[in-house]
Design a protein that fits this description.
Strand order of the largest sheet: 1-2-3-4-5-7-6
Oligomer: single chain
Bound molecules: coenzyme A
Strand content: 25-35%
CATH superfamily: Gcn5-related N-acetyltransferase (GNAT)
CATH architecture: 3-Layer(aba) Sandwich
Shape: globular
CATH topology: Aminopeptidase
Number of strands: 7
Order of helices and strands: EHEEHEHEHEEH
Largest sheet: 7 strands, mixed
CATH class: Alpha Beta
Structural class: alpha+beta
Number of helices: 5
Number of domains: 1
Amino acid sequence: MVFAIEPLNKGHDRKSFQCGQADLDDWFQRRASQDDKRNVARVFVACDDKHGVIGFYSLSSFTLTIDDLPEEIGRKLPRYEAIPAALIGRLARDIRVRGRGIGELLLADAVGRIISAGRTLAVFAIVVEAKDAAASAFYEGFGFRPFPQHPRRLFLLTSTASTAVERL
Ligand SMILES: CC(C)(COP(=O)(O)OP(=O)(O)OC[C@H]1O[C@@H](n2cnc3c(N)ncnc32)[C@H](O)[C@@H]1OP(=O)(O)O)[C@@H](O)C(=O)NCCC(=O)NCCS
């Protein structure tokens, strides 16, 4: 099977994509391309030669405040107004490939891209938005932790992610 994750382009057929969350499908089908053009999100698409488009994720820069972070992390940081982060705003795989590791591959690819970008533009933490408890559980399985005051938003320190990747 040929599998690739690549930047969204006009050749990707998004019309039949279904992940089980109507708002995510709608965003991907109708707004992803506009968001990308306007530089508010970069969108990456997973395809294989059997199903076509089977997943996507979006990346944006993001900022945190020290107060967003757990106290034991925040107290080690300089008291800057904004702490730089990267947001995986949306991530989904098609229901046709549910439970086959595509979500994990998308997340690993997104984290890898953020680590690479972080060599040029500092990124303290990787932030994800979980739609529901199942999505939170998925991210927690990879070491993401919920923000104390925002349980559906989770983070992973870039330093932790880089160490994990170096060990692979
Ligand atoms: C969340 C989502 C991306 C997971 O994708 P997937 O391809 O089904 O998951 P994978 O097969 O890659 O699973 C990877 C690991 O996460 C675990 N996992 C997957 N879904 C899980 C869930 N709902 N709860 C707990 N763990 C979960 C798997 O058991 C697996 O762990 P293992 O390797 O120890 O067995 C997928 O369910 C999805 O697209 N959901 C709809 C959109 C959504 O909610 N996106 C996230 C918020 S934007």
